[in-house]
Amino acid sequence: EGLDVIYKCNCSKEKIESGIISLGKEEISKIIEEDGNSKTFYDECMRAFDVMMKYKNALLHIYNSRSRSVIEKYLMAVTPNFIRRFVTLNSENIEINEKNIIFICDFYKYAVTGCTIEWIRSGMPEEREEFVKKIADIFEATVSDAIKAFEIKKN
After folding, report:
1. Which of 40, 114, 138, 155 is most enclosed, with most CB atoms within 10 A?
2. What region does 93 belong to: left with phi over 0, alpha with psi -120 to 50, or beta?
3. Is the confidence at residue 30, as pLDDT, over 70?
């Protein structure tokens, strides 16, 4: 019987964690926002997943160490940036207060981040298009209704 092939890295979780943290929130957001003018939620998600695939070994190393909270914190910090853009686009011509826009963005932030963490936990399979399409389809099918639920009614 054969042995499992594993990737060994001479770096420590501390080195990787400090490397990510040293980029700073501004630089990390800049990386995420590069080309962040996708026309659809699906395109934006695929772009983000493609970036994660580029750093797959490092992400899996961090996730499988005791530092998985670094990835969760990172995703929770950057996911709202692109969700907000699509919530704003879908709320044009609808009067809704800022507090409720934040609530809607937070709702989708937790959903997208949770799904993404599960994808990372499962080893970041290459076949991600169908997975990302499901996330995007749910967002696009429900975001307008979420916005309308909080619309300020005119008397």
Report:
1. 138
2. left
3. no
Confidence of residue 74 (pLDDT cuts 50, 70, 90): confident
- What pTM was estimated for this model as a whole? 0.74
- Alpha-carbon distance of 40 to 8, in angstroms, equals 38
Which pairs from 29-36 meet CB under 8 Å and 24+ separation? Answer: 29/77, 29/78, 29/81, 32/78, 32/81, 32/82, 33/81, 33/82, 36/81, 36/82, 36/85
Half-sphere exposure of 116 (CA within 13 A, CB side): 26
**In Å, how far are 41, 51, 115, 133, 145 from 138, measured between CA atoms?**
10, 22, 12, 8, 12
pLDDT number for residue 16: 63
One-letter amino acid of 38? S
Rounded Cα–Cα distance for residues 21 and 71 (Å)? 11
- The percent of residues above 90 in pLDDT, for the chain, comes to 47
Contact predicate 88/105, CB 8 Å: no
Mean pLDDT over residues 80-99, rounded?
91
51: DSSP letter: H
Residue 9's pLDDT band, with cuts at 50, 70 and 90, is low
